[in-house]
Design brief:
single chain, 182 residues, 2 domains, disordered N terminus, 5 helices, 4-stranded mixed beta sheet, 6 strands, alpha+beta
């Protein structure tokens, strides 16, 4: 993967403009507004809001959920070939895998996602935590247990993580504006 070298690892090219570029390249009639574009160093996830289906006023919550699921399934099938073509363009431009999803009403579905392997060394107490989750049936493997733990921590520390991301963004901006030593 082409990229620039920072801190001992190769990074893909910057993708600060990815949300705008993706919004510009996708057809205007796909979503009820600009898609939500989430970028990390491995993947770009594109999730668009679909218009809610029109149902009778007396429709039950189960009927609404089924209609929303059907709307998402239709969008997934109707846009498959185009999404593949757009993904190739986006992957070439930003050197990251592209994943897709859609939201409708209260439902959100990801069609494809990229699972990036992460190498880590855990000591016995940490492995025992993962093994307990596996033994209890919370997860099928240590890998799945670790992903579960990361999601749980993310949910409970989101304000702090948001502040940390903002601070890292400020550092990145200072680096970008810094002197050229190259």
């Amino acid at each position: 993967m082409r990229g620039h070298w920072t801190g001992g690892r190769a990074e893909p090219r910057p993708a600060a403009d990815a949300a705008a570029w993706v919004t510009g390249v996708l057809p205007d009639d796909w979503y009820a507004g600009p898609p939500r574009v989430t970028v990390d160093r491995d993947e770009i996830i594109i999730v668009g809001q679909l218009p809610a289906p029109t149902l009778a006023a007396e429709a039950s919550p189960a009927d609404r959920a089924a209609a929303e699921a059907g709307r998402i399934a239709r969008h997934r099938e109707q846009t498959r070939d185009q999404r593949i073509r757009f993904a190739r363009q986006i992957e070439h431009r930003y050197q990251r895998k592209v994943s897709w999803g859609a939201a409708c009403g209260g439902r959100r579905e990801l069609f494809t996602t990229h699972s990036a392997p992460v190498m880590t060394r855990l000591r016995q107490p940490e492995r025992q935590v993962l093994d307990t989750l596996v033994d209890a049936g919370v997860a099928r493997s240590r890998s799945e247990a670790l992903a579960w733990c990361v999601r749980l921590v993310g949910q409970h520390t989101e304000p702090w993580l948001a502040q940390l991301r903002q601070a890292m963004g400020a550092v990145d901006e200072l680096r970008r504006r810094g002197p050229d030593v190259g």
